[in-house]
């Protein structure tokens, strides 16, 4: 019996630097518009050379996650800029996809994400989720929408799946859905009775993931997205 084995290749230092920065963006800890540290400081923080950092940043720029601004520095792509480079946006351009249709897709994507997250979330993932949830609740308590914090919470769930394909799809999907989220949170804010429900949904999702209960996590996510979907449909009516 012949078994074909491939030589194991050590991961390049620049790839490790790239992955650290990428994961901060995917988790929502670096948000659209945030400026990243200068090259020299990044190199010191990561314990690598400046050419290594330069190579990692170049890869992130090519991916459309970072952008250089002349005379200002390097930033996480803004929402408007992300939309221009978003492959999902390009795909549906001209098809007039409705917010309702996007939420239906979100039901499938996030239903899968939350199941995997409940199965695979590490202690670090749960800490990140808790911080995102607390930040969102703090924004709400201050009378603000907490849109970025809401997105960070859902992206932290996706990151906990440990599936890079799922993470990449959801990152592009949330960039596309961002304006719909803003529109609906503004409308939900006009009905304060809805906010405790939304907060309860997010707390339930977090608790189920923390307890590693995939079924409860799925039901909590389904309840949340169904609530938002029904809200959108009722507004149309």
Give a description of the structure.
The model has no long low-confidence stretch (mean pLDDT 84). The protein is mainly α and 237 residues long. It folds into 2 domains: 66 residues, Winged helix-like DNA-binding domain superfamily/Winged helix DNA-binding domain (Arc Repressor Mutant, subunit A, Orthogonal Bundle), CATH 1.10.10.10; 151 residues, GntR ligand-binding domain-like (Four Helix Bundle (Hemerythrin (Met), subunit A)), CATH 1.20.120. The chain contains 11 helices and 2 strands; from the N terminus they run αααββαααααααα. The radius of gyration is 19 Å and the shape is globular. A hairpin with a 3-residue loop joins strand 1 and strand 2. Helix content is 71%, strand content 3%. Strands 1-2 form a two-stranded antiparallel sheet.
């Amino acid at each position: 019996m012949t078994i074909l084995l491939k030589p194991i290749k050590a991961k390049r230092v620049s790839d490790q630097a790239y992955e650290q920065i990428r994961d901060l963006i995917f988790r929502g800890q670096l948000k659209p518009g945030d400026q990243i540290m200068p090259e020299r400081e990044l190199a010191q923080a990561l314990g690598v050379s400046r050419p290594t950092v330069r190579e990692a940043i170049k890869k992130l720029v090519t991916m459309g996650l970072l952008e250089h601004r002349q005379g200002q520095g390097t930033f996480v792509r803004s929402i408007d800029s992300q939309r221009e480079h978003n492959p999902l946006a390009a795909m549906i351009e001209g098809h007039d996809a409705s917010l309702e249709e996007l939420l239906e897709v979100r039901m499938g994507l996030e239903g899968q994400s939350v199941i995997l997250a409940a199965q695979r979330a590490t202690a670090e993932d749960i800490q990140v989720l808790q911080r995102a949830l607390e930040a969102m609740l703090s924004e709400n308590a201050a009378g603000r929408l907490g849109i970025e914090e809401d997105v960070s919470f859902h992206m932290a769930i996706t990151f906990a799946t440990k599936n890079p394909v799922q993470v990449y799809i959801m990152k592009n999907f949330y960039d596309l859905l961002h304006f719909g989220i803003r529109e609906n949170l503004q409308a939900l804010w006009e009905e304060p009775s809805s906010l405790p429900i939304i907060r309860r949904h997010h707390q339930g999702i977090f608790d189920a993931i923390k307890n590693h209960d995939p079924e409860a996590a799925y039901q909590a996510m389904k309840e949340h997205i169904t609530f938002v979907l029904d809200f959108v449909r009722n507004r149309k009516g």
